[in-house]
Design goal:
This is Xylulose-5-phosphate/fructose-6-phosphate phosphoketolase. With 805 residues, the chain is α/β, with parallel strands linked by helices. The chain is built from 26 helices and 22 strands. The radius of gyration is 30 Å and the shape is elongated.
């Protein structure tokens, strides 16, 4: 279509329609938004506005709110005309008062919060609770009905909307993208959604890019771009945009209504064609570019400075109403300009003719079942016996630990083919992470045309029907999964360990969402956000320093214990048991850390289940404390480990100690669930002190080989008896392109370093100790020389396997 720089309508003539009632509904939402920001009393201005009616602290954001309410009101109109199932995602950060106002007007807010009733008493409570102690925050967070998206940290709205639409064929997700938010990297990547939304099986995403021109104190990039340029940007990403622009409500209302009608017709036509004729490529999904003034209908000027249409309307346009009589007078005039006496009846209820504009029942956007996490039910997990590895001889079987998980995920895809409710999300690393068995059941999803060569198809398991979501963006993978699970489906995000830090802030925000959502009885528990960290720091010896970083562990361990879990399965069978648990769990952020390379396998499936249930166990077979000479006594030293490579090095250290210093009593403890380590008051999984001391004793020194940064483990041990006796070795930012064993040597977590630490910490003198110390130093020197000459590890390192002493 041709784009007029001054367009106020779409290319389709709007039908003749009276928008007076809709405009008044919009006015009611704007009025309640202002009231929430400013008032603590006199919610409908039934008496002249006084200083004592104003909150002592004015918090909140006005600038984006009129646009959000305008869109919400028009979506209500669309829903009433079509009975469409519409999920509303508000991207602009602090649009909370507008969305709360609209859910209150439609009645969904009072249903979940009966104390905020649809009368004058309820209105008073509505305004008093906003941004006040014991009340609600200014974001569209978990406490806001209809929301699956926290609007605090910007950039994630469109990816959440896309994830919500996946495998939700009847759903339309209307996603408002603010022009400030559009400057973020995650949002910029999100425009690629048309390449991944399959109209045959997915719902639709309707982006509404709201250009009001300004951020908190300056202009926005897209706000200053021409309509043609902005439309071209969206077109290049595969969207079919239309423009609605203006500051005259009499023109904007019919233009926006026409744009939404056209978008809905286009969405249904795309879906109908795909569901009858099939999919031949990416659809040209509709999008709307809405350009209206920031802070529209608010104060035009304040203290002789322009406000409406500028950054000065972003937060509280009249900031001194308690101190400045002119500001108070101007606020009252602003609020009365909406004519609240014509919008609400004598009892403080929205008048009937405006109430009738809202959809009914579950079609209200604040009451949509999908927004509460009502999805497609629990996920059936195949029997793990199909995939379990034989671990005989113990430690002597080498196998890629993530491969059996890939086989399990393959069968979940097969089992849910008729009722899709599971997806794997991975940034172009599914095969690399040894999960490629899933491609026996499905393909990578991409709706772009297939690539060919003269000889054969160049693509490997790529099709529009694929349900493995690979895109080279950790943000998109995690954001799609978050939208997917928050609307009740199940999934897994697999990432190289170091690069999961790209989306670490998203993990924090999701955990905060879950933490608050748990306190809301009206919200359904949702499937957990499951993050698999593989290609870990210890085995990125081939990729180098940039790929070596376990930082997400630290990030997650600092979050609320009610919602976070961190697992270090040491082998394939323990990983299977962990995956079974996390895919069945609800309301958690589960982080699982295990390497993709071949590693020794230690436990049978039955042993893996017992170990997982305990979270940490004494591996009697690996130590020697149960011999006749030490029975009933504490060991001389405890070797503890968490993670597959630290486990291997710990077992090798225990083997060396028992071989060379047999009189030394050694206990080996493997920690699979990191959250058993803190005291129970710090985390629900925390072991009681008695049980903790059964594992680690009450006073014996403990040498710990830890997968991540040592400081993270010290943090967990705070509050335990004599935490100073735990001597933790972990990754300490030493790395390069080198051999696998050199990585543990560089970070002083090798078997030789562990042995030397253990001998230095064990009390008493033991025959053979001095010789073993010399052997360790000699081996480290030999290692350094050998790898520089032969470019691989010493044979005695490469070929070592656990054997019973």
């Amino acid at each position: 279509m041709s784009l007029d720089e001054n367009a106020t309508t779409t290319d389709k003539e709007p039908e003749v329609e009276n928008f007076d009632l809709l405009h008044r509904y919009w006015s009611a939402a704007n009025y309640l938004t202002v009231a929430q920001i400013y008032l603590q009393e006199n919610p409908l201005l039934r008496e002249p506005l006084q200083v004592e009616h104003i909150k002592p602290r004015l918090l909140g954001h006005w600038g984006t709110s009129p646009g959000l309410s305008l869109i919400y009101a028009h979506l209500n109109r669309l829903i009433r005309r079509t009975s469409a199932e519409v999920l509303f995602v508000a991207g602009p950060g602090h649009g909370g008062p507008a969305v709360v106002a609209n859910t209150y007007l439609e009645g969904s807010y009072s249903e979940v919060y009966p104390a905020v009733g649809k009368d004058l008493k309820g209105l008073r409570r509505l305004v008093r609770q906003f941004s006040t102690p014991g009340g609600i925050a200014s974001h569209v967070g978990p406490a806001t009905p209809g929301s699956i998206h926290e609007g605090g940290e910007l950039g994630y709205s469109l990816m959440h909307a896309t994830g919500a639409a996946m495998d939700n064929p009847d759903l339309i997700v209307a996603c408002v993208v603010g022009d400030g938010e559009a400057e973020t990297g995650p949002l910029e990547g999100s425009w690629k959604a048309p390449s991944f939304i399959n109209p045959l099986r997915d719902g639709a995403v309707l982006p509404i890019l709201h250009l009001n021109g300004h951020k908190i104190s300056g202009p926005t990039v897209l706000g200053r771009r021409s309509n043609t340029a902005v439309a071209s940007l969206l077109e290049a990403h595969g969207w079919d945009p239309v423009i609605v622009s203006g500051d005259d409500p009499t023109l904007v209302h019919p233009a926006l209504a026409s744009a939404l009608d056209s978008a809905y017709a286009s969405i249904r036509a795309i879906q109908s064609h795909a569901r009858t004729e099939g999919v031949t490529g990416p659809a040209r999904w509709p999008a709307i570019i809405l350009r209206t003034p920031k802070g529209w209908t608010g104060p035009v000027t304040v203290d002789a400075m322009p406000v409406e249409g500028t950054h000065r309307s972003h937060q509280v346009p009249l900031a001194a109403v308690r101190e400045n009589p002119e500001h108070l007078k101007q606020l009252e005039a602003w609020m009365r300009s909406y004519r609240p006496e014509e919008l609400f009846d004598a009892d403080g209820r929205l008048i009937a003719e405006l109430t009738a504009l809202a959809p009914d029942g579950d079609r209200r956007m604040g009451a949509l079942p999908a927004s509460r996490g009502v999805g497609s039910g629990d996920l059936a997990i195949p029997s793990l016996d199909r995939y379990a590895l034989e671990a005989v001889p113990r430690g002597g079987v080498m196998h890629g630990s993530t491969k059996p998980l890939g086989e399990m995920l393959r069968d979940i895809y097969i089992d849910t083919a008729g009722d899709p409710r599971f997806r794997l999300f991975c940034p172009d690393e599914t095969n690399s992470n040894r999960l490629g068995a899933v491609f026996e059941a499905t393909d990578r999803c991409l709706l772009e045309p297939a690539a060919t060569t003269e000889a054969a198809l160049a693509d490997d398991h790529v099709s529009a029907s694929g349900r493995v979501m690979e895109v080279l963006s950790e943000h998109l993978c995690q954001g799609w999964l978050e939208g997917y699970v928050l609307t009740g489906r199940h999934g897994l995000f697999a990432s190289y360990e170091a690069f999961a830090m790209v989306s670490a802030s998203m993990t924090i925000q999701h955990a905060k969402w879950l933490q608050h959502a748990r306190d809301l009885e009206w919200r359904q528990p949702v499937p957990s956000l499951n993050i698999l960290l593989t290609s870990t720091c210890w085995r990125n010896d081939h990729n180098g320093f940039s790929h070596q970083g376990p930082g997400l562990i630290d990030t997650v361990l600092s979050l609320a214990g009610t919602v976070i879990r961190v697992y270090f399965p040491p082998d394939a069978n323990t990983l299977l048991v962990t995956a079974e648990h996390m895919l069945r769990s609800k309301d958690y952020v589960n982080v699982v850390v295990i390497d993709k390379q071949e590693h020794p396998q230690y436990l049978t499936l039955e042993e893996a289940r017992e170990h997982a249930a305990a979270g940490a166990s004494i591996w009697d077979w690996a130590g020697n404390e149960t011999s006749a000479t030490t029975a009933g006594k504490d060991p001389d030293i405890v070797l503890a480990c968490a993670g597959d490579v630290p486990t291997q090095e710990t077992l090798a250290a225990a083997w060396l100690l028992q071989k060379h210093v047999p009189e030394l009593s050694v206990r080996v403890v493997n920690v699979m669930d990191a959250m058993v380590l803190p005291p129970p008051e710090a985390h629900p999984h925390g072991l009681a002190n008695e049980k903790f001391n059964e594992l680690f004793t009450a006073g014996v020194d403990v040498v710990v080989a830890w997968h991540g940064y040592a400081r993270a483990l010290h943090q967990l041990l705070h509050g335990r008896s004599h935490p100073e006796r735990f001597h933790v070795r972990g990754y300490n930012e030493q790395g390069t392109t080198t051999t696998p064993f050199d990585m543990v040597v560089l970070n002083k977590v090798s078997r030789y370093h562990l042995v030397m630490e253990a001998l230095g910490r064990a009390s008493g003198q033991f025959a053979g100790a001095d010789q073993l110390l010399e052997h360790c130093r000699s081996q480290l020197d030999a290692h350094s020389r050998y790898i520089r000459e032969h470019f691989e590890d010493l044979p005695e390192i490469r070929d070592w396997v656990w054997t019973q002493q």
